[in-house]
Request: fold
Amino acid sequence: MNKSSIDAIIFDLDGVITNSTPLHSQAWKEMFDQFLNAKAKKTSTPFQEFTHEGDYLKYVDGKPRYIGVKSFLESRGVNLPFGDPSQEPGQDTICALGNMKNQLFNQMLTERGVDVYESSVEFIHTLKDSGISLGLATSSKNAARVLEITGLSDLFQTCVDGIVSAELGLEGKPSPDIFHTACDKLGAAYDRSMIIEDANSGVEAGYRGHFGLVLGVARENNQEELELHGADLVVEDLGEISLSDIHNWFAGDDQGKSWSIEYHSYDPNREGTTETLCAVGNGYFCTRGAMEEIPANLDENYPGTYITGLYNSLESKIGGRLITNEDFVNLPNWLPLTFRIGSGNWFNPREAEILEFHRKLDFETGLLTRTMTVLDQEGNQTKIQSERFVSMANPNLAAIQYKITPKNYSGMVTFRSEL
Reply:
């Protein structure tokens, strides 16, 4: 790698390097549930528990502890005085609640330890061996202890954690303060540095900080959210990115986005336009970009396939003149392909909850790809991947590759293909 193309790479800790998210989420839940339960009894109102999906990811993940407390309480219409960071753990102030969460987290850390993502550690070693400056920027005040427990302390040349942030008066994420400070300590230019984050607030901080590359790590099926908050690239694991990928980005060789059209959500009302824009063809044979599993529906979906020279001529008299219109004829639909789990219903995206969605037409290769993770009514999560192309070498050849991956179940799966 040409080291001159990049000055530094700054990592977040929780969720990127260490898998401490379950510990943090449980500590937050125990603390808030105690508080909410006591409040419900005191006010004779229903108890509404703190949840990982609805509350942790939305209000506290990636934020400094006291800001996280304040953010969640505001979402429930609760106002508490800030208090003082030196307060004992309790329920009277924001600081007391935050300190209770920290106490619970440290107890769990002592009892259970913390796991690391091995692919992340391998990636960090590769970067360090290449001579790139590495920094750590995290909202956690427990970073030093976590690094010591995991044996990762020597891998980073600087660490800007919650303690440093408090000492310097840095704003928490989504402000880019901690990332800017880490770069400053390394003598790295912001536009020649890379940020690696898993939280929406952290990705947004990277975007606001005008860094050369913001990489999102989607551990929670949240690729679309990370991109919406400013991630330039998103992976599910750091094993998916290499030194050459980073070098190409900073060298200006990554032109992927300008040579493709991409969608990160499924909108039935816009599907007709999307199918038109995602059509694949070779000058003789063309198929609209309809999804394989959805039946033809003139209001939303129209999986048309057309061939040069195959058309229908119709004559009509307009203004006393005979006008001939020639319209393409829609051939038999070769796309229908779906599956079912056990004896359940055949899969239809309109009847499932879509957790993740990405559709891309690559203009250089002519390849139409789609990746989506769906949740059916029985709670089964399935990852679906499809690839489609129309051959330029053989004008009569087109193909679909279709894969599914069960995420949380096992059982008999039946595929159905139609013409």
Notes: Residues 268-417 form a domain with the Beta-galactosidase; Chain A, domain 5 fold (CATH 2.70.98.40). The first helix runs from residue 21 to 43. The CA atoms of residues 174 and 194 lie 16 Å apart.
